[in-house]
Task: inverse folding
């Protein structure tokens, strides 16, 4: 196998979803531009170019409001699955494994192995931080996206207000406005539904060969088994 084919094979999941992300983002930009310009011309304003739309607050808020809900989903799921279980689900730990587990089970400190990450070995603050690094990063990205959404949404909302001859809001006032929370909660509810559905559907349904599913012949009640 050539070096390029090996890279593609070993990183196929990330590369494919990265490409799909860019295609979807491009589709959103094109369709969003058409809708944005239609709204501008309806109110007697000049249409903007694709470049102008990509730099607009309208495009920014549409993008980051979805990003923040996705990272909130993963942040909550990462921490929830430490303590909460779902009988029969491949998305759950075994029923008797709820909690952070022992150092031996997690291979940290004196139980670290030859190939363990460097920060898994000391058993001090570095191990404590590394042990929670996935949740910390996901939570941090969520908060950054939430802040970016609030700023971009504030600018987009005030631009819409100006087109209708209405007064602008301050950023703090926008944080309590229905527009901000409507944009936010409509994404949150869909993410929570999707995650909960995945955890429960995996109890009774299968996808052969997927690590997100139990093996086809495993009983429904078996928890934490993956294909």
Result:
């Amino acid at each position: 196998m050539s070096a390029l084919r090996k890279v593609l094979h070993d990183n196929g999941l990330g590369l494919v979803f990265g490409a799909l992300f860019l295609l979807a983002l491009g589709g959103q930009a094109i369709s969003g531009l058409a809708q944005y310009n239609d709204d501008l011309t309806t109110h007697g304003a000049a249409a903007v170019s694709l470049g102008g739309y990509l730099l607009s607050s309208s495009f920014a808020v549409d993008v980051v409001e979805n990003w923040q809900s996705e990272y909130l989903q993963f942040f909550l799921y990462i921490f929830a699955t430490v303590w909460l279980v779902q009988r029969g689900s491949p998305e759950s730990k075994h029923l008797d494994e709820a909690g952070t587990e022992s150092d031996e089970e997690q291979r940290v400190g004196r139980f670290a192995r030859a190939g363990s990450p460097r920060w898994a070995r000391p058993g001090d603050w570095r191990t404590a931080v590394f042990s929670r690094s996935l949740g910390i990063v996901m939570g941090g990205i969520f908060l950054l996206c939430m802040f970016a959404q609030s700023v971009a949404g504030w600018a987009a909302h005030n631009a819409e207000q100006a087109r209708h001859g209405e007064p602008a809001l301050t950023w703090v006032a926008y944080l309590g406005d229905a527009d901000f929370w409507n944009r936010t909660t409509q994404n949150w509810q869909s993410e929570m539904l999707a995650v909960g559905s995945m955890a429960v559907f995996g109890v009774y349904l299968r996808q052969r060969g997927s690590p997100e599913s139990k093996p086809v012949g495993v009983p429904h009640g078996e928890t934490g088994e993956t294909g």
Remarks:
- The chain has two domains: 1-55, 57-227.
- The two ends are 26 Å apart (CA to CA).
